[in-house]
């Protein structure tokens, strides 16, 4: 009797172990069979597409037809790359890694666990062309080009939108200031591109010290607009969610462009803002607001207008704000063109110019940063090539 | 608020540059000088080159399994949000300075990373475990709980009621007498 009582827990434990081991064994066996089936489907797809491309390359030029190719349901995306053509960089970070690692391949799958392959004699309409899996199939339109076959997605909806577009590229990300624009409230990417280009031309290519250093900047556009902002009295964004999206492009600095109607904004003005390396711009505001916010982000410059009621609550010292000084402005006495005006964030601090971009950018004299701010910005610009 | 220190920048230049790679997007909470990692999102993408760093602040270090530094940089939590606007007549500019806020950093991810350390310079080191270590601890805790459960079950079975003990003894005595 005593022996029976003592043995019971061990019997239970042993039973659990045996059941667990059996479950694990069957799970592994099932997984192995599934993996084999997926592998066969993957190989079949590669064989079929190669056969069709060869067939179409030998057909009369201009012959066109749409085909559905079966693929394993686990594949999300099939990407075709024409290695002889110009491949769009930054379109998909995961694909960039795959294409750089396997330079002899031109068909890639996501997830990357599916082996990439090489097939001859094709061109793509967009390079890379990434087609989505729709019900375990990809639908392609093949067109004979004589000795080659052109591949298109059967419908535009089946093309995976590129995640990042390079707007202006001046060189390697590591050496340049990478600015990524992301839209909020935009109906289409074309409008976002147009607006981003207006800011680039009117701020980064016009205002000093950026204009004479414009080759130190790369500009990108995140193609998926953000839904993680809201308009209160300012543009309030979920920093974490916006950064997750921004990570698809090189992103030393991120600028959210919130599209807003000018008339609506006059009735109910929304403030633009900057926090850390994230600036949020109300497109209905004066274009120089971007220069002002970027001055905060890039140069860590403070506001040169006075707000004693708010800033007076904090123990702010002149040495904490690069563009605000003590009485006599000895901090920038050697900088040519600088002066000394009372009022800079606090009425007890001093600024170098009567007005500047960091002050009332929407009034006369607010079109330039002024010599002290330019020096601060230049110190940071010198860290880039 | 911050000045560039060339020497410190040279020391802290990231080991890996901004090529698409495995990254972690951190959701961080800043609360009266304490920083906690609330969430970590792993993906493929880009992280900032961080050529511009403050002279003083917090150090974020990614440590390897062998306790070497894989990547580090200095940063300041963005405690000031600058708000700016113009309504046609008045400047609407103002700021919001906060001691409690959430912010986010994008950092590289390494295969052999063990933990992410966030150190306030000049103060005691505070750290957060990476998800993988958290997982190991949770698994270990679960195993300990199972062992405790079986130990208690075993003890309970072993514990015999005193009354039952007397009855058993009497029965044994009666059996002996009958023999």
Layout of strands and helices, then pairs:
The complex is a heterodimer of chains A (385) and B (179).
Chain A: H1 2-57, E1 64-70, E2 77-80, H2 93-101, E3 107-110, E4 122-124, E5 129-132, E6 137-144, E7 149-153, E8 164-168, E9 177-184, H3 189-204, E10 217-222, E11 229-231, E12 235-237, H4 239-246, E13 253-258, H5 262-267, E14 272-275, E15 278-282, H6 288-299, H7 308-311, E16 341-344, E17 346-351, H8 371-381
Parallel strand pairs in A: 4-7, 9-10, 9-13, 13-15
Antiparallel strand pairs in A: 1-6, 2-3, 2-5, 6-7, 8-10, 11-12, 14-15, 16-17
Chain B: H1 6-12, E1 21-31, E2 34-45, E3 58-64, E4 69-75, E5 80-84, E6 94-97, E7 100-108, E8 113-120, E9 125-129, H2 131-158, H3 162-178
Q: Mind explaining what this structure looks like?
A:
- The complex is a heterodimer of chains A (385) and B (179).
- Chain A has eight helices and 17 strands.
- Chain A has helices at 2-57, 93-101, 189-204, 239-246, 262-267, 288-299, 308-311, 371-381; strands spanning 64-70, 77-80, 107-110, 122-124, 129-132, 137-144, 149-153, 164-168, 177-184, 217-222, 229-231, 235-237, 253-258, 272-275, 278-282, 341-344, 346-351.
- In chain A, the strands form five sheets. In chain A, strands 8-10-9-13-15-14 form a six-stranded mixed sheet, sandwiched between helices.
- In chain A, strand 9, helix 3 and strand 10 form a beta-alpha-beta unit.
- The longest helix of chain A has 56 residues, at 2-57.
- The N and C termini of chain A lie far apart (85 Å).
- Chain B has 179 residues and is α+β, with helices and mostly antiparallel strands.
- In chain B, strands 4-3-8-9 form a four-stranded antiparallel sheet.
- In chain B, a hairpin with a 4-residue loop joins strand 8 (113-120) and strand 9 (125-129).
- The longest helix of chain B is centred in the last third of the chain and has 28 residues, at 131-158.
- Chains A and B meet through helix 1, helix 2, helix 4, strand 14 and helix 6 of A and strand 1, strand 2, strand 5, strand 6 and strand 7 of B.
- Strand 14 of chain A pairs antiparallel with strand 5 of chain B.
